[in-house]
Structures are given as structure tokens and as C-alpha cells.
Specification:
Elements (H helix, E strand, L loop, with lengths): L1 E9 H5 L3 H16 L3 E6 L7 E6 L2 E6 L7 E10 L3 H10 L7 E6 L14
Antiparallel strand pairs: 1-5, 1-6, 2-5, 3-4
Length: 121
């Protein structure tokens, strides 16, 4: 079963990212790879680097920054393939950000998107 691990952080944590934080994230990613459960994932830039797109009445609307008024923002994500929710919870608890922020675990809805490099030959 595939699960998304969605990491939420405050703006303060985005602003305080340093080499130690980045190294902890890389080590966590390497542990996921070594266990053979990582499908993909990435950390994200600060919410100030975001652009939000919507379509209303057939017209594209573009807004700078995050659209939602919130105290925490999506900081990164991972897609893992594990046997069940209990295994996903174990991996989420091991995420380095779990000690100071939140990691949401959400099952993927089907397999609508191809994973990996699927360039035609």
C-alpha cells in the first residue's frame, strides 16, 4: 500500500533550516531507500516561493505565495510503499521533523500517475 507522508512546519522552522536539519533529512531518505520502501519525495522551498493557480469561470488566476491562511505550511513530502498503516506510522515517527512539527500520513488514491522515468523508446 502506498502512503504519502506530508510534513508541515511553521514559517519559523522554514527560516531556521540549516546544514544539520538538511543532513537529518538526507539520512532519513537514505534509511527509507535502504529499507526499500521509498517511492519518491522531496523537501520544499519556503511558502514565499509558492505560486497558486486556480481556474474560475474558465480564466486562470495566479497568486503569489500560499493561498491558505495558516500557521503551518507543507514543507516536504514522501511517498512510501509499505504493507499497512502501522508500518507507515512507524516511518512517519522516524522522520526528523516529527519531533517539532507534524507528519500527516495519507493513503494514495489508486495509481493514477506513473512513477519513475517512463520516456517512450
Amino acid at each position: 500500500m502506498k502512503y504519502a507522508l506530508l510534513v508541515y512546519q511553521s514559517q519559523d522552522h522554514f527560516d531556521r533550516r540549516d546544514n544539520t536539519t538538511i543532513a537529518a533529512g538526507r539520512a532519513y531518505g537514505e534509511a527509507l531507500q535502504a529499507a526499500g520502501v521509498l517511492v519518491g519525495g522531496a523537501g520544499l522551498e519556503s511558502p514565499q516561493a509558492a505560486t497558486t493557480v486556480s481556474v474560475r469561470d474558465g480564466k486562470r488566476q495566479v497568486h503569489d505565495g500560499p493561498y491558505a491562511e495558516t500557521k503551518e505550511f507543507l514543507a516536504g513530502f514522501g511517498i512510501i510503499d509499505v504493507p499497512n498503516l502501522d508500518a507507515a506510522l512507524e516511518w512517519a515517527a522516524r522522520h526528523p521533523a516529527a519531533g517539532f512539527s507534524k507528519v500527516e500520513i495519507r493513503p494514495l488514491l489508486g495509481s493514477h500517475f506513473a512513477v519513475g522515468n517512463s520516456k517512450p523508446s
